[in-house]
Amino acid sequence: MxxxxxxxxxxxxxxxxxxxxxxxxxxxxTSEASAQSSSLAFTVRTYRLFIxxxxxxxxxxxxxxxxxxxxxxxxxxxxxxxxxxxxISVDGLSGNFYLPENMLESVMELIRREAPIRxxxxxxxxxxxxxxxxxxxxxxx
Length: 141
Description:
Number of strands: 8
Helix content: 25-40%
Oligomer: single chain
């Protein structure tokens, strides 16, 4: 008579395979969740501006700001296109920050006139900010 609490080799391997699959799926889900909950934040050291009004792109300009190993592409979306949600890479070292194209001049003015400048994409909400890093007194620029 077979004991109800025993299983044969085939049943054991089937259960082990199912448990492994759940573990892999769980790990993939956890990695995605942690990537979305991490933030990207750094002080800008260098930048490069690309004007790209090409019809195949949804943006008219791309401003890449860097402070190794961090990098963020600020993509200025053409008028009439939906602005996508900001994103952060899985490793948390880079991101895409989307803005309407009419903000390009303001952002460039801030980048050129202020120092230091901080770029942040908040984890979870993916809300992006570009700001001077220190408090300043009114009237000083």
